[in-house]
Amino acid sequence: MAYTFSNSFVLAFTTLSFLLVSTSVSTTTTTTRSMSNNIEGLSYNFYSNTCPNAEIIIKNVVSQKLKEALVTAAGALRIFFHDCFVEGCDASVLIASSSTNKAERDADINLSLPGDGYDVFFRAKRALELQCPGVVSCADVMAIVTRDLVNLMGGPRWEVLKGRRDGLISKASRVEGNLPQVNQTMSQLISLFKYKGLSTLDMVALSGAHTLGFSHCKEFISRIYGYNTTCDIDPTMNKGFALQLRATCPIKSMDPNVVAFNDVTSPFTFDNAYYLNLQKGFGLLATDQQLFLHPETRSYVNDMVEDQQIFFSYFVAAMIKLSQIGVKTGSDGEIRHDCGTFNA
Ligand code: HEM
Ligand SMILES: *[C@@H]1O[C@H](CO)[C@@H](O)[C@H](O)[C@H]1NC(C)=O
Ligand SMILES: *[C@@H]1O[C@H](CO)[C@@H](O)[C@H](O)[C@H]1NC(C)=O
Ligand SMILES: CC(=O)N[C@H]1CO[C@H](CO)[C@@H](O)[C@@H]1O
């Protein structure tokens, strides 16, 4: 249940990824298209004349990348979320720092965002540039790549509205306060998501993204050692689970690179097991577990457990809202040639 990102880890899962990817594709054909709240300037057929094969080109890159590194899906999904919460969904998170600017992706909180997640966006854009140079924005690439990854991991599929433009600002100093943290209370998190235009239900559904990926020990360490003066371990955490996590993250010789699965039961499948875990005290982060403990969110967690299709439809609706936060359209921003740098 714990892995460091060693080569053997990646190799071990490369073989498994073929199985997972091929079985999940055939079982998930749900397509959802939201007709409401669409932002002016975004459309489904935005590239039909200028780059008709854009989504096919992207899909091929995504499938290939996932075969090489299954961890890509979680990494990219988290990066997309961070992009949208800081300056809007404008690919500002992909900009590399320069000697004069510490970019968004190098904010302290971003230190844990993994390389494979970034790589899939860059690769998809490079493939598009060969066929339709200067046409498809990095912001749209991010929205489409993320959709494909969720679907390939066994999750739902939805149509992506296109027409986003790439942002002209990427500053590490503008990250703080815009991203959720594990030590925040449910009411702080509800306010943050509300400020971004997302409801409490959207927040619960999007947290289902933690059905994939990992967290570093430091993100949950305070739950398993010296929790408070009366309990050494957070009593809302399943005891056996807490002890396993202690073995993963020994207090004396904690390796900063060690991680634990966010969804301990099915870490490489996009499913509703994350919510079932919360009912059993298997939530990894304090904020995960709080979703089941807090009266305003508990019933939503129960709904997600009840029916995976309900989770999928709430997740899709929330992803569509997330992917429209602060988008630039028309003549705002630019269409970057290289996602990592502003056009000259
Ligand atoms: C509700 C508040 C949230 C909090 C407090 C939170 C916090 C975190 C933390 C601390 C990690 C572990 C990072 C690390 O140690 O490397 C993580 C991982 C992750 N988060 Fe969240 N998150 C939240 C919501 C979301 C949302 C809305 C999404 C996407 C829609 C998301 C997607 C992910 C994914 C996919 C991972 C795994 C990343 C990987 O394995 O590379 N999270 N989150
Ligand atoms: C949460 O953690 C961050 C960074 O680890 C810290 O700066 C902040 O003060 C903490 N917030 C609360 C409410 O404890
Ligand atoms: C420790 O945490 C538990 C569970 O949250 C709580 O019931 C208890 O009152 C806390 N103890 C102290 C001293 O805060
Ligand atoms: C300062 C720092 O190390 N920032 C890192 C943020 O995450 C990206 C992606 O892994 C790294 O490339 C940066 O170096």
From TrEMBL:
Q: Which reaction does it catalyse?
A: 2 a phenolic donor + H2O2 = 2 a phenolic radical donor + 2 H2O
Tell me where in or outside the cell this protein is found. Answer: Secreted
Signal peptide segment: 1-27
Q: Which residues bind Ca(2+) 1?
A: D83, V86, G88, D90, S92, E104
User: Domain Plant heme peroxidase family profile, which positions?
Assistant: 41-343
Record-annotated disulphide pairs: C51-C132, C84-C89, C138-C339, C217-C249
Looking up Gene3D superfamilies in the UniProt record yields: 1.10.520.10, Peroxidase, domain 2
- Gene Ontology CC: extracellular region
Q: Which UniProt keywords apply?
A: Calcium, Disulfide bond, Glycoprotein, Heme, Hydrogen peroxide, Iron, Metal-binding, Oxidoreductase, Peroxidase, Secreted, Signal
Entry binding sites for heme b: H210
Q: Name one GO biological process term.
A: hydrogen peroxide catabolic process
User: Per the entry, which co-factors are needed?
Assistant: Ca(2+); heme b
How the cofactor is bound: the record states: Binds 2 calcium ions per subunit.
Q: What is its EC number?
A: 1.11.1.7
**Active site per UniProt:** H82 (proton acceptor)
Record-linked PROSITE patterns: PEROXIDASE_1, PEROXIDASE_2, PEROXIDASE_4
Which residues does the record give as Ca(2+) 2 binding sites?
A: T211, D263, D271
Q: Which family is this sequence assigned to?
A: Belongs to the peroxidase family. Classical plant (class III) peroxidase subfamily. Belongs to the peroxidase family. Ascorbate peroxidase subfamily.
What function is annotated for this protein? Removal of H(2)O(2), oxidation of toxic reductants, biosynthesis and degradation of lignin, suberization, auxin catabolism, response to environmental stresses such as wounding, pathogen attack and oxidative stress. These functions might be dependent on each isozyme/isoform in each plant tissue.
The protein in question is named: Peroxidase
